[in-house]
Predict the 3D structure of the following.
Amino acid sequence: MHIQIVGLHAPHAPRLRALLGPGHEVEALQAFPEAGAIAADVVIANSVSDSEAARLRCRLLQVPGAGSEQIAMQSLPAGTTVCNVHGHEVPIAEFVLHAILEHSLRLWQYPQTLDADAWAQAYAQRAPHDEAHGKTVAILGFGHIGQEIARRARAFGMHVIAVTRSGRQAPALAEPLAHEFVAVSALDEVLPRAQVLVVCCPLDDSTRGLIGARQLALLPAQALLVNVARAEVVDEPALYEALRDGRLGRAVLDVWYQYPKKGQPPVAPSRWPLHALPNVRATPHISAITPALLERRYRFMADNIARLRQGEPLRNVIHTAR
């Protein structure tokens, strides 16, 4: 089989080649060709424009992550199957819990070096910190990531509110991971009770700008917002102004409004100086990146390619072009 792996994941072609074994040609491409058909049995890419999608001639378009908003589904030729892959929920959940504990413990208020010069004053003026235990965390989006966050938050004694489209626990969930399930339509009733708001929902027309100035104002003044979904779920200027003016306690942001693009001038992660605010922890979209994640994802993709070759049902089908 001929597999093309395109863009950011191209350097991982040797990993996939080793998993697939003989009988597969794995071609690494930094970018799609500018013209002509893009022909392969399988194409692995996390971004496909309208013009690229129209030129695809493959049976399987495998997205090497969970998000598919950068795939021009409407332009894919009939018969193209699109699959995605998860596996990122464990490191992201750990990242979120670290953010919550950091917000509670506030270790940044203590000297970095506790030497003889700093010890006496630090000991005399040591300030109390907070506890995660007993706090309420609202999790906006309760898929793979939200569920893993809930498991860990409950272990720390937190009250978990899952905010979903339906407001009901999914039938597939055998365990009651949240203490409450609330519909997105009732979000305004949840926010005043949430000391922590975690954004981990997909980005689409219904969620873009879902957290705006009014929603941010409903959160308690010392609340923590953690965004590990897509930046655009939270209104950019409203977030900046709430943090700048102290109406929102703190934010941990791992996803951004602007990203570097090859061949284009450098850009800041936000059009507003969010990164410069003292109550913002800015990280460069790293919450999911671990060696174990790559291993899980590439084993999944290799299995899907094997299924395609053997005529077996594919896993994680999210779209079939008609």
